[in-house]
Design a protein that fits this description.
By secondary structure, this protein is an alpha/beta fold. 41% of the residues lie in helices and 16% in strands. The structure holds ligand 4FV.
């Protein structure tokens, strides 16, 4: 998987992506990252990348020409072709694990990180295949959104996570919240680790973890349960959890 990010702050992107799991993935060549600064494609003396909004109003809007030239250069820069161009903005489709799971099958993503009030709509219409949103709130730039997409998709690339299992067990990977996690010390003034996790009975541990994941999802995100079919075993585990809660 290769990521290209078009951003006025390329160092912010390449810097942050160089840490942790994504950093190792890039080192190992499992993930590629190129950054493109639209300012390098602004040909006037002041290297102008933004201008006042038509129709008036606060703030500035990013001009389409530097963005377009940056994207075209990115596309020319390397194979595989067939890159999907995605603009990160509050107007986009909500980013979910399912959306990222689907996107992780593309060979290449070109992510557009906007700044200011936004970018000229003609660039979105002409050059973008999709628009994605982190959520219904506003941040100052698309870079953090691009980094979140790169991190979340990189985890789905075989070989990136030490244990393939991890990605599968990630929260939301199966549409449920994650179960609680514990590590040493076994006993503490903050409480003790649940006995079932100490017994080595893997079937019982698996059931306990599923029950906790179902219960937490029911308590904290019932909307997720509405979207999800439960197996007979999961139904029974959730009933058990609910009975224990109401008691
Ligand atoms: C955003 C979001 C977001 C809007 C104007 C950057 C800002 C500024 N991006 N999901 N929510 N973007 O708030 O992706 O240009």
């Amino acid at each position: 998987m290769h990521f290209d990010v078009v951003s006025l702050f390329p160092e912010m992107v390449s810097g942050a992506a160089g840490y942790g799991v994504t950093g190792k993935a890039i080192e190992k060549g499992l993930v590629g990252l190129s950054v493109w600064n639209p300012r390098d494609y602004a040909h006037d003396r002041h290297k102008t990348v933004d201008d006042r909004p038509y129709g008036g109003g606060p703030g500035m809007v990013m001009k389409y020409q530097p963005l377009l030239d940056a994207v075209n250069d990115a596309k020319r820069s390397q194979q595989p072709d067939g890159a999907k161009v995605v603009y990160l903005s509050p107007q986009g489709r909500l980013i979910t694990q399912a959306l990222l799971q689907d996107a992780s099958t593309s060979p290449r993503l070109i992510l557009i990180a906007g700044r200011y009030e936004g970018i000229d709509e003609r660039f979105i219409e002409h050059a973008c295949d999709d628009e994605w949103s982190l959520g219904d709130y506003v941040i100052s730039g698309g870079e953090l959104a691009a980094l979140i997409v790169i991190d979340a998709i990189s985890r789905l690339i075989p070989g990136v996570l030490g244990d393939e299992e991890s990605a599968k067990q990630d929260s939301h990977a199966d549409g449920l919240l994650d179960c609680p996690h514990y590590t040493r010390p076994e006993r503490s003034e903050l409480g003790n680790v649940p006995e079932v996790l100490l017994g080595g009975n893997h079937a019982a541990i698996r059931r306990w973890r599923m029950k906790q994941a179902l219960g937490r999802t029911w308590v904290r995100r019932p909307d997720l349960l509405e979207k999800r079919e439960l197996s007979a075993e999961q139904d029974a585990l959730l009933k058990e959890f609910r009975n224990e809660v109401v008691k």
